[in-house]
Amino acid sequence: MTAYDDLMAYTRDTQALGQVAGRLGWDQETVMPRGAAPQRSEEMAAMETVLHARRIDPRVAGWLAEIDDSTLPAVAAAQMRHIRRSYERTSKVPAALATRLAKLTSAAQGIWAEARSADDFKAFAPTLAEVIMLKREEGQALAAGGDVYDAMLADYEPGTTAADLDAMFGAMRPVLSDLRAAVRAAPAPAQLTGTFDEGAQMKLTRQLAKTFGYDMARGRVDKAVHPFSSGSGLDVRITTRTNPADPFNCFYSTIHEVGHATYEQNIDQAYLLTPLGGGVSMGVHESQSRIYENQIGRSRAFTGWLFGQMKDAFGDFGIQDEEAFYGTVNRVNAGYIRTEADELQYNLHVLMRFDLERALMTGDLQVSDLEAAWNDRFEADFGYAVDKPSNGVLQDVHWSVGLFGYFPTYSLGNVYAGCLNEAMRAALPNLDAELAKGDTSSATTWLRDNVQTHGGLYEPRDVITRAAGQTPTEAPLLAYLKEKFSGIYKL
């Protein structure tokens, strides 16, 4: 065997172990007994120790030294790009630090959940401060004298810097703020009221998952506090949540996570358990979940079909017709929760988190001041005060598990989705007629062929550029939002 063959065989085993570690995380969020948390923390730390050791094994360095990437075919060269990048990054982080982080963030997740339930930020603050201290240490090791936050971004969106995001978000913020103000001043569509059986929600949500192409033979739908997608290849699982007063939360959380999950399921299976066998970045991943959820799932055509499905499931629920239902689905509501926010306000939630976490990483903001900073910024951006920590600084799990640099990829994913939607609709002129029948296959096939099948073959922005026919820019997203909400609110 060649050095490349040896390295790829070794890498497959490492990837497989990583999938096992991911399954532990899925279990922790869905069915693990609450009392098992301390033991699970030890188990996750042990897995991270093994994985970190494999990633920096001296044999990997030896194989990398032997391989001349310029002599490899395109797919093999792409595999090497990922392996080299991962090895160089992992080698910079001391094994003891990686283990401490894995153990702490596993435990911190449970502490965050308890603090959130009790609406007590002070109960979580010391743990968060410890997580931030270790993440700074990790970031400094990765940055090697460069920008710490850029080093963290590279874990989720290689090739993107905070300066790039500042420019993009700076262009988005005034447009979104002005449009939001105009919408909030206009008469609003009817709001959904009533009680919706949670069992019926789960039945319809599984139907929706299949409607958007989710392969249940390689996946499953469970309930969790915070919806997520987990796994890749032949085992990709999603979670959702139910609220008897808000079935849209369940349905659109499911559609969103199906966007993530079908991306993983649709990657070329030749890449299974290799670095190319997962989504290339969180921004590209988010582009899939957001285009499924919003440009397809909240479109006038698709909501017309969904209106009929909801009447079948729940009977008359107070909305008179398909057009009124379209307005109700896309109603811009006052609210606190990022994951429940409408398309128009969602990015304002993300931009706030981006600024706050950068300040935490640089030391410009201390954990002791975080709750007040959050509340002040929220009131400035949304016009009303946060009522309790679970609707504010404690609402997201991300910081408890050390995902600094992750939040901005949500808005970047929206930008990518705007570019993809423009190209997809140009390529599929009959799309709305199909969506009105509940047929998403043309849209999901276009996304599969142009984005998903490639996995990690190309760099993130190259994936979007190839599919959309243009360098990613915020312009298509902003144009789409202006047209959609001006129509709904008759601006």
From TrEMBL:
Gene Ontology MF terms in the entry: metal ion binding; metallocarboxypeptidase activity
Catalyzed chemical reaction(s): Release of a C-terminal amino acid with broad specificity, except for -Pro
Enzyme Commission (EC) number: 3.4.17.19
Cofactor (UniProt): Zn(2+)
Keyword Cell inner membrane (UniProt): no
Positions annotated as active site in the UniProt record: 257
Gene3D superfamilies: 1.10.1370.30
SUPFAM superfamilies: Metalloproteases ('zincins'), catalytic domain
Pfam families for this protein: Peptidase_M32
Enzyme class: hydrolase
One BP annotation, GO: proteolysis
Superkingdom assignment: Bacteria
Keyword terms: Carboxypeptidase, Hydrolase, Metal-binding, Metalloprotease, Protease, Zinc
The keyword Zinc is assigned to this record: yes
Binding-site positions, Zn(2+): 256, 260, 286
Cofactor binding notes: Binds 1 zinc ion per subunit.
Entry similarity comment: Belongs to the peptidase M32 family.
Reported function: Broad specificity carboxypetidase that releases amino acids sequentially from the C-terminus, including neutral, aromatic, polar and basic residues.
Protein's name according to its UniProt entry: Metal-dependent carboxypeptidase
Species the sequence originates in: Sulfitobacter undariae
